[in-house]
Specification:
Layout (H helix, E strand, L loop, with lengths): L1 H20 L3 E4 L2 H25 L1 H6 L4 H21 L2 E4 L9 H24 L3
Antiparallel strand pairs: 1-2
Helix pairs in contact: 1-2, 1-5, 2-4, 4-5
Length: 129
Amino acid sequence: MRGFVIGVAATAVGFLVLTEVMSQVTFTGDVIQLVVLSLVFGVVNALIKPAAKILSFPISAMTLGLFGLAVNGGLLLLTAWVADRLDRVQFTIAGFPTHSLTLEVFGVAIVASIVLSVISTVTGLVVHD
């Protein structure tokens, strides 16, 4: 249970740092909404990511793993969409989900997923279970 709480808190801190680092990624809300966003992100990564990785394996093999960045960006967009539907959490990536999905939005999501991965790695090195 302790590890779960630490993981949710680390993800919440990661989202806060992400919104400070990238101007196209915005979050406006309170601590409860931030926890909801972190939980949604965890559920998407736990349930959808393994299936997406398996289904995209042929393309990932052809691109030497670079397609994994697109999968991570898509999962971050899915997190924004689900969080918007669940609790009206105001988490947007270049205007998505309130605006339409464009190539620019997808590019920002890929960069945001890379930044979030770096933040999560650093947080994981600092905070141990």
